[in-house]
Specification:
The protein is α/β, with parallel strands linked by helices. Helix content is about 45%, strand content about 15%. It has helices spanning about 5-10, 20-25, 35-40, 40-55, 75-95, 115-130, 145-155, 180-190, 205-215, 245-255, 270-280, 305-315, 330-345, 365-375, 390-400, 430-445, 465-475, 490-500, 515-525, 535-540, 545-560, 580-590, and strands at about 10-15, 60, 100-105, 135-140, 160-165, 195-200, 220-225, 230-235, 235-240, 260, 320, 350, 375-385, 405-410, 450-455, 480-485, 505-510, 570.
Length: about 600
């Protein structure tokens, strides 16, 4: 029976895990089980048979990690492994004596850019199509990026193909890239090339049930393939100890809630599928109408109590000053400097997140301290370098509780190579993904949203690329950009062009150059800053006091020249020289109001 006809009245039962079950039976030799398609096809065939005997009426090809960008499958090993996986699954289905739907199993392609990912997915899809595959599942995805394009490729090659897209989320509904499951469901629902969507992996059956119960699935075809509990580590092995009966209870609840397609992911074995099959046979395996969901997620009205943003929107020029947090445990000098800046009329203090990957007092904790003790608005920088998604969310929730309403998202400087044996960079996502994650939290969880700021490098020689990245940041929720310091005519022209091009507010960057050596250091050692040689020459032979006067003069000159194309100023404090900054602030207030 054609699968769409089958699904009109029936629920579909998939198989369980291939990878974890394969390791349980044959041992974990640190190689992906997909290689067994070539080396031990009889092992793979036997597992397919066991799942079919347990009652599954859909099986996935043993090809989850097989893609042309995975080094394990380099050269002709990629196509051979893929084709062997297709052949083995089709053989298992053919000998079953009943209808078994064979799905091409397509896992995420990671570690590359979107163009390469899309090309790899399309190449895989065409091979599946050439071998007669009509059913496809893109599983364990963290975003919808490139999936729609790949699904459209399938539909062009196989017009009656059936395509499932399944996402992998944590118990709070967010993927490792910071995408919220309800937003991903909306994207999949709108894609004409996608026939069904849902969740798999990472979650236990109970947590998956809770999330899907909060989703308004209506009459959509939704799939749910939870893990067999949560993993436990013993030595170098990972184990799942969920009870098959408990698992089947949860899956039965999912079916009663209107989920149409069910199965198992990591940690599930044929016994799990057998228990589900028995439950389904007891009522004929009929598809259920979705239950009314009294606890559906509601998006609350937001309260934006953000003095800084209100001033920016009013059209008045704002002044934000970056002040480095201490490298030791003594914050007295830092707090005294912040107090001076507040007295000078600064609108906000920004705090870098361990600049140049060197440890400083935490920017978010210090932002909260400034807010509480000095009642000044703060913009803590948040890098993607040292925190995973859980740690980032935990910090954002605490910042929201502390009344912090502005954050700057940046990718962050990498840890110097000499330290990498001791300090590991996380880099789980980039600044655009982090901005999108905060935007999603704003929409779905926070009563008082954050204003999201981004960085804009006006000193880049390829400024068109910077503008393109800025446009992506705006789509992901960035409302305002803080630019790198403007110290050349080229940077000023780029700033003007950004003002004309971007649909966002801009705070123009200023950094006082305090000596010729300081200017050369920034050119040589600080990424994103360019000091004109003509400026450096002006400092030659000057005393400290003369350099200070020159620093104020040059900074104010650039501030005046950029005044018409910025919504405010972002001033970086060099060497804790708050005395210089207060003079620059006073000068800006004279002409900018």
């Amino acid at each position: 029976m054609e699968i769409r006809e089958f699904l009109k009245e029936n629920a579909l039962l998939f198989d369980g895990a291939m990878g974890t079950y394969f390791s349980e039976i044959h041992g974990d030799d640190q190689e992906p089980c997909e290689l067994a398609n070539i080396t031990h096809p009889e092992y793979v065939l036997e597992i397919h048979r066991q799942y079919i005997e347990a009652g599954a009426n859909a099986i996935k090809t043993n090809t989850f990690s097989v893609n042309p960008l995975n080094d394990v499958f380099s050269g002709n090993r990629f196509e051979k492994t893929l084709e062997a996986g297709i052949s083995i699954a089709q053989k298992a289905a053919d000998e079953a004596g009943r209808d078994i739907y064979v799905f091409a199993d397509i896992g995420p392609v990671t570690g590359t850019d979107e163009r390469n990912t899309a090309d790899a997915l399309k190449k895989m899809c065409m091979i599946y199509a050439e071998h007669g595959i009509k059913h496809y599942i893109f599983e364990t995805n963290s975003s919808f990026s490139c999936i729609s394009e790949a699904a459209e490729t399938i539909k062009k090659a196989v017009p009656d193909a059936f395509v499932i897209v399944s996402f992998s989320v944590q118990s709070d509904g967010y993927t490792r890239e910071g995408c919220y499951y309800l937003d991903l469901f909306d994207e999949a629902r709108k894609a004409k090339s996608v026939d069904a969507y849902g969740l798999n992996c990472m979650l236990s059956v109970m947590h998956m049930e809770q999330l899907l119960r909060s989703a308004d699935i209506g009459g959509d075809i939704v799939c749910a393939m939870p893990n067999g509990g949560y993993p436990r580590v013993s030595g170098r092995r990972i184990y799942y100890n969920s009870d098959p009966e408990f698992f089947a209870d949860g899956v039965e609840n999912l079916l009663n809630d209107g989920v149409t397609i069910v199965g198992g992911c990591c940690g599930t074995r044929p016994e799990f599928i057998k228990r589900i099959s028995e439950r389904m046979r007891s009522d004929g395996g009929r598809r259920k109408a979705p239950r009314v969901r009294p606890h559906s997620v509601t998006r609350t009205t937001k309260r934006e109590n953000n003095r800084l943003w209100k001033k920016i929107e009013s059209g008045k020029k704002v002044i934000a000053v970056e002040l480095d947090t201490p490298r030791d445990s003594d914050a007295n000098k830092f707090m005294a400097g912040a107090w001076q800046l507040r007295g000078a009329g600064v609108d906000a203090i920004t705090l870098a997140d361990c600049p140049t990957a060197r440890a400083h007092m935490d920017s978010c904790l210090m932002a909260s301290k400034l807010k509480r003790e000095l009642d000044i608005e703060t913009i803590p920088h948040m890098t993607c370098r040292d925190r995973n998604l859980n740690a980032t969310k935990a910090l954002l929730l605490a910042l929201s509780m502390e009344g912090i309403r502005n954050v700057l998202t940046i990718t962050g400087d990498p840890v110097p190579s000499a330290e990498r044996d001791e300090v590991k960079s996380v880099f789980q996502f980039n600044s655009r993904m982090l901005a999108n994650f905060i935007r999603s939290l704003n929409e779905n969880e926070l009563d008082s949203p954050f204003r999201i700021y981004g960085a804009l490098n006006v000193n880049s020689r390829k400024f068109d690329i910077q503008l393109r990245l800025a446009e992506e940041k705006i789509k992901n929720g960035v409302s305002c950009f803080l630019t790198q310091p403007v110290l050349t005519d080229d940077a000023l022209r780029n700033l003007q062009f950004a003002h004309e091009t971007l649909d966002a507010k801009i705070l123009g960057g200023i950094i006082p150059v305090v000596s010729s050596r300081n200017g050369r250091f920034m050119n040589s050692e600080i990424s994103g800053i360019t000091v004109g040689e003509d400026i450096i020459e002006r400092y030659e032979g000057k005393t400290r006091d003369e350099c200070t006067e020159l620093a104020v003069e040059i900074s104010l000159d650039f501030a005046r020249r950029m005044n018409s194309c910025v919504d405010g100023y972002y001033i970086v404090t060099p060497f804790s020289r708050v005395d210089i900054i207060t003079r620059i602030v006073a000068g800006i207030k004279e002409f900018a109001g």
